[in-house]
Design brief:
Length: 129
């Protein structure tokens, strides 16, 4: 077992208990480029968190990865953005290590995907033999 971040354990414990709005969604940090230098938006940050605000409108708080290559935000906050902004953020969605086949399977239940033979998962390292 790996050492888990205690805050991540609490957040996802709540997500699994039904507070789905706390689900963290990650994005390439380039998602913020659209808003930089725009008079209608303010973009501020500390070392690890930031806030994007549409003047007179919405705001979105987000976390910043250690390498500053990604940001993450709560699903509930993202859902409250105007549709045009939600589409923009979706284009920049990032899920390191994601299985495209799994995502396709969830989007098209019952479809057949040939990505190899079915086998037992035997090794603890996460690799099958």
């Amino acid at each position: 077992m790996t050492d888990s971040d205690p805050y991540l354990v609490v957040v996802y414990g709540r997500v699994l208990a039904g507070q789905h709005e706390l689900t963290q969604v990650s994005f390439d940090a380039a998602v913020l480029n659209r808003y930089r230098g725009q008079a209608a938006y303010s973009l501020i940050r500390t070392n690890t968190v930031g806030r994007l605000k549409r003047e007179g409108g919405w705001s979105l708080d987000f976390g910043i990865s250690a390498d500053e290559g990604q940001v993450h935000a709560c699903l509930g906050d993202l859902a409250a953005l105007p549709e045009e902004d939600r589409r923009h953020w979706a284009v920049h969605a990032a899920l390191p290590g994601a299985s495209r086949s799994f995502l396709r399977m969830r989007l098209h239940p019952g479809s057949c995907f040939d990505d190899g033979e079915v086998r037992a998962w035997e090794r603890e390292s996460g690799l099958s033999t």
